[in-house]
Amino acid sequence: MVDRLANSEANTRRISIVENCFGAAGQPLTIPGRVLIGEGVLTKLCRKKPKARQFFLFNDILVYGNIVIQKKKYNKQHIIPLENVTIDSIQDEGDLRNGWLIKTPTKSFAVYAATATEKSEWMNHINKCVSDLLSKSGKTPSNEHAAVWVPDSEATVCMRCQKAKFTPVNRRHHCRKCGFVVCGPCSEKRFLLPSQSSKPVRICDFCYDLLSTGEMTACQPTRSDSYSQSPKSSLNDVSDDDDDEDSSD
Fold first, then answer.
1. pTM
2. Which one, 16, 90, 184, 238, has the greatest CB density within 10 A?
3. Which tens digits make up the pLDDT trace of 3-47?
4. Residue 177 burial (CB < 10 Å; 0-12/13-18/19+)?
5. In 3D, which of 85, 81, 64 has the Cα closest to residue 127?
């Protein structure tokens, strides 16, 4: 079906509409063979609070942006190659229901659908697109994923030293390797994580010690793959809507 739609006028028109909704600030989306599979509003769990984002699923990329005018205008366009994506379901907890993780080497975050049916459809379509891409390329699924950031609201004290209380003066920071919320003294070091940034990024002392000794996988939090609390993205040097209040930390 995707191959049949690839060169159709209807598909070209639909993609053109999406491009126009992002305006001049968005990247061109029309390329040979690209098909718009589906679209919809999902709740993306950001650093400060959940926010509605418009998502577009293509056969090779996932695109999302801020909603400026519903179905007419979006900004802050983000493009994620599906070839690097893996997804994991999240258990329902409180008001956060019908969610799953979208994980890539550079960025990982949680999204939530309005219904269980919508969640199932999104996950099935994403998995099918990823499977088809990997089958055509002969590549294997990515086994490296950026950590999902723990939201600010989940930590009143540093998650490493368990002592420093966060205040307007003693600010929260995030380790780019494990995603924990940590205090300044516990995250003064930098380390180069090539999949996330071309420059050394902030990491906590615990992860720094493990990375320095070559035990890179040991500093990943055990709950990252079965996250039952509110997560957050872990991209450092790309401006994201998640970090609109404090992009440097």
1. 0.81
2. 90
3. 666 668 999 999 999 999 999 989 999 999 999 999 999 999 988
4. buried
5. 85
